[in-house]
Every structure is written in C-alpha cells, then in structure tokens.
C-alpha cells in the first residue's frame, strides 16, 4: 500500500521522506529513565542540544506513564508543561506535546506547539474532540479504551484499525500511528513486545507513517538484564531493525547516537 505522509511544521514524515528523529524531553522527575528528566530552566538548552545533534523535532512530556510511577494531578502536569513550553516559544524548534488531558492541551495551545502525542488513541471523546479542534497533527497510539491495552499483534492491529476509524470520524488527516510497544498494562508481557517488533512491517498496511518508540524500554532491559541507564546498545540494535521494517519516525532519549544510526542506515540504502 502506498504510504501517505504527515506534515508537522513543514517536516514531511513518511511517504518516501528520510526517517525522522524525535528527541524526548521529560519535565517529570518520576520518569523511568532519569537521564530524560530536564528541570525547568534547562529545557531550552536541552532542546537546542538535541536539535544540533540531529533531532528533527522534540517530544515534550510532563507526566510519567511508566507502570508504578508516582501519580500527579492534571493541574501539576499543566503547570509543568506551561513552564517548559515558555522556554521554547519563538525558538523555531519543532515540538510535539505528550498529554491525554484536554485541560493540559488547552495550556499547550497557548504556546508554539506543532503536534500532539496521544497515548490514549483518541479513545476519550472529550480529548479527541479537543485534539481535532486544535488542527494539529497527531501521533496516535494503539489503544482500545486505555493507553496500550492491546496485547500482542492481533489485538494491536485491531486497536490501530479503531484508531484509524476515529481519525476518519474526527476528520483528522495528518497523523502518525504508534503500535504501543511497551509495558502499558499489567496483562502485557515482554513477549508481546517482541512479537510487535518482529512484525513491525505489518503496521504499514494502514498506509500511514509509523512511529518506533522503544527507547530503553523494559522488555529490552529484561532480555539483557540491564537497568534503563544501560540499555542504549540494545535500543540501537532494535531501532535499526525497526527502521529496516519501515518505521518513519524514531522516538529516542539518545539523539546523537540514534542520528548516527540513521545516517548509516541512509547510506546503506543508496544504490
């Protein structure tokens, strides 16, 4: 199937464009990988460094979604993201914001943001409508009712089909699919994640660009017996395989290393 592209702030994703690199900045000290946490006052410097290292865009989040993480209120998330985005206004850095609450999105829309990263798969009608009304492109994750609640390949394909249907109903044309690799719900196993990665090419059947978001995740660490701080090599090895299978965007904590990987990949594709 011919893949449609998605445009985020003039950045073409998919449809024959080079593989894009999304750098991760978390302004949540609860994040599972402490190396991704950036406190207020240092957001701009971190984003600029990522851009200079090869990031095409930055994904900014203010709430940890890791299982067992300390919960925060919607007001706390909104306050964090407001402060972080204030540092980036007017910089020209392409930004997506990682949230699933309309109150937080409302705050984000006061700033220079270019896309929404929705792990809930537009399953919540109130939030889905807010996203649609924003007119922003969406990175949208495979979810039935809760983030990442599909387990295994068959359920994930069904969840992505539901996401595509929601986008059509909401008249959202600019979006990238995320197959939700990771331990999002307790029922999911490491083998579920490996199955998704082995069959990543199957997600291209929807004709949309697909996001690879596997950076330093648990299933990699459990295989290698390593904590998040020691999972870079495993992440890069898997990233190369997913890119070969057709990933259009890579979401990464480690921008410089992943940018090198993508340069090598593009060189190997030349004929």
What can you tell me about this protein's structure?
With 271 residues, the chain is α/β, with parallel strands linked by helices. It has a single domain (19-269), classed as TIM Barrel (Alpha-Beta Barrel). It contains nine helices and ten strands. Strands 8-7-6-5-4-3-10-9 form an eight-stranded parallel β-sheet, covered by helices on one side. α2 (74-86) runs parallel beside α3. The protein is globular and about 40 Å long.
Descriptive keywords:
eight-stranded parallel beta sheet; 271 residues; 9 helices; globular; 38% helix; 10 strands; single chain; TIM Barrel; two-stranded antiparallel ribbon; 15% strand; alpha/beta
Provide a compact summary of the structure.
This protein is an alpha/beta fold and 271 residues long. The chain is built from nine helices and ten strands.
Fraction of residues in helix: 25-40%
Give the strand order, joined by hyphens, for the main sheet.
8-7-6-5-4-3-10-9
Rg on CA atoms, Å = 17 Å
In the CATH hierarchy, what is the superfamily?
Answer: Dihydropteroate synthase-like
Strand content: 5-15%
CATH class: Alpha Beta
Count of structural domains:
1
Number of helical elements: 9
CATH architecture: Alpha-Beta Barrel
